[in-house]
Amino acid sequence: DGGITQSPKYLFRKEGQNVTLSCEQNLNHDAMYWYRQDPGQGLRLIYYSQIVNDFQKGDIAEGYSVSREKKESFPLTVTSAQKNPTAFYLCASRSTGQGNTIYFGEGSWLTVV
Amino acid sequence: RKEVEQDPGPFNVPEGATVAFNCTYSNSASQSFFWYRQDCRKEPKLLMSVYSSGNEDGRFTAQLNRASQYISLLIRDSKLSDSATYLCVVNTPRGDSWGKFQFGAGTQVVVTP
Question: How far apart are CA B72 and CA B61, in angstroms?
């Protein structure tokens, strides 16, 4: 089935550690996104990529890094510089053209212990 | 002022009743509008796009009021399974073909027996 796969679903990070969240899509979508969701808040954009080997910072990029070496893959690294990383992370993708809808993976829960 | 605002609720609705709620957006240049449904601890899923003339999908009706810059969602004959958080999503052009998605924090609906 076509879709967006995120892994792991649950992840615990120790203080000072970097962790990487995986996102793979087989929808042949050009654009991919990473969002963070905190309780009572709307989704906030971390990074996005419109094409392979190119990505742009979103509204809250500090403490995060990404890569886009393949169209299908857009991993997110939460670095130790991110001071409050506990959140629900959502990867999304979208096909070319304005107005097209955005589709989400099942999300990854990251908790700092 | 937030770019996309929603009443967080909860809207407590008896089964079989009708519930309606709005979402306001601040940028008059916004062009695409969507309602997503998000269940607890799950990813958002597209419920319906919102068209200028208004549109209906079964028990769900969406309306767009560009003059007052809001969209609305009405749910008729509410089912227990309609209990969820409903996210308003707005796409605003920004000089490329992609635009920027902005998310409301969601309106919680609780349907009671």
Answer: 8
Dist CA A59 CA A47 (whole Å) = 8
- Rounded to whole angstroms, the Cα distance separating A43 from A108 reads 14
Angle CA(B1)–CA(B26)–CA(B58) in degrees, nearest 5?
A: 120
Task: From chain B, pick out residues whose CB is under 8 angstroms from the CB of A40.
Answer: 8, 105
Mean pLDDT for back-to-back runs of 10 residues, chain A (113 residues): 89 90 94 93 92 94 97 96 92 76 94 88
In B11-69, DSSP assigns E strands to: 11-14, 19-25, 32-38, 44-50, 55-57, 60-65
Specify the amino acid at residue A31.
Answer: A
- Chain A residues at the B interface, defined by Cβ less than 8 Å, are 31, 33, 35, 40-43, 45, 50, 88, 90, 94, 96-99, 101-107, 109
Tokens found for residue B109: 């609906």
Residue that has been written with the tokens 């670095």 in this structure: A79
SS3 A21: strand
